[in-house]
Structures are given as structure tokens and as C-alpha cells.
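Handout, page 2. Input:
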Amino acid sequence: MSKSETNFQFLERFDKRVALLAKQAEEYVHTDPDSCMFKLRLMVETMAKKLTSLQMRGDISQDLGAMLGALERGGVVPRRQADSMHAIRRDGNAAVHGSPTPVPTAMRRLREAYKISGWFCKMVKRGSKVNLDEFNPPEPPVPMDSATKQLHGKIDKLEESIEERRLATRESLLMFGPQENVKEVTRRITEELKALDNVAAAAGEPTIDADFVALVMAMDLEQIEEDPRHGGSSRQAKRDAEQQLTGIKKHLAEREEAFLAERTFLLEQRKT
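Output:
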């Protein structure tokens, strides 16, 4: 792919700002993967704001994590796209806070952004037909040496492992599999979460948005408070439930830090 070419040309017809950010991310993926992640995060934030203005009613927090959570709970963003958007947001935040982004990680997120973009176009312009070609990975400015290729292979395997671990946690918390009827799941989730929005907001945004949303889906705090099996007051039952939630959030945050440490360790090996 030459410098003048881009996978995201089709976006120009739907949102020029999103198209520009995608193209800039594509240009940075090899030379400055951290900047690539900055641009991809801003791209996802721009998408989320547009979808919120088009599809959601009422006041929605402009915090990206909160917006994505509201869009997912409202059935606007399907689970697959939400997971990818959260992943981009998460790695973008990590880059902002000084965690180095490996090129394979940036390339993986760029590929996900490409898939999200096709779906986004259909959402902002109903009835539009967007047939994505196969993603064409940008070529590095100079050929990679064997050591770099080997390092990138290790990072790719690590990223696969991280994705599998995240998915396993989400599946266990959701308590339903990817083959379940999507419309029925969306309807049930929406009904369950209407009463829990205030609780989620009070708890604050966790590090792992997708896992946290999945956890809230599986919990009905109102029933927990009133369940006589707790053998105590509903107020105490609520405190117990909130402590459990805090503990799980802490565990998930620590796990994400471990993922970042694994990536950093691999990058440091190249320097020694």
C-alpha cells in the first residue's frame, strides 16, 4: 500500500472527521504505534458521540467509557462492535498513560477499526451498502529484520492469548454464549439494566468496561437486597454486594495491568 492509499477511503462519504483520523492512524501504525492508538481512540470517541446524538435520548456522559456502555445497553452497539471499541479505548488510554504500544497491537486495533467502520457507516446512513474489501495491512517503511519479525510473532501470540482470556471472562460473567438470539439478549439486557444505571454510575468506570457491563448484566442488586437468604437487612445486603463488585473490579484492573506488563516485557527483550 502506497502512502497515498488507505483502507478507509470509503469513510469520506459518511464522516470526514472519522475518515481523517483513521487515515492518520494507518500512517502511524509502523513508525509511531502510540500515536496510532491515540488516533484510533479519538476515532472511536468521534463515532460514539455521533451515534449518541443520533440514537440516544436524554443526557449521556461525554466520557467515552460511559458513552459506549450506554450505547451497548441501549442496543445501539452490538456486542462484537462494542468489544472492539472498548479494546481500542483501553489500549488508547494505556498509550496515553505511557505504556508502550507494540506494532502488532496497533495493527490489530487498526484492523478492528476497519471492521467497525463498515458497521458505523450503515448506522449513520440507513440503507447504505458498504461492502468492505479485505483489509490491506500497511507496509513498514523499511523491511523488518529477522529479529523484529520474531518479536512481532511473539507479540501476536500474546495478543491472541489476551483476547482469549478476556473473552473467557466475559462469557463466564454473561452466562450466555455467542449463539444465543441477539435480539432476545438485547431486550432482556435492556430491561434488566434500566434499574441499574444509577448503581453503575455510582460505582464509577472500571478499567475493563466490557467485563464490568457483563457483570452488571448478571447481577440484579434489587433482588440481592431483598433475598431473605442473606439473613440480614437489605441495606447490609446492598453493602455486601457492592463490596463484591469492588473486589471483582479490582481483580479485573490488576489483570489488565498484568497484560500491559507482559507486552512491555516482550518489547524490553528487544533492547537487551
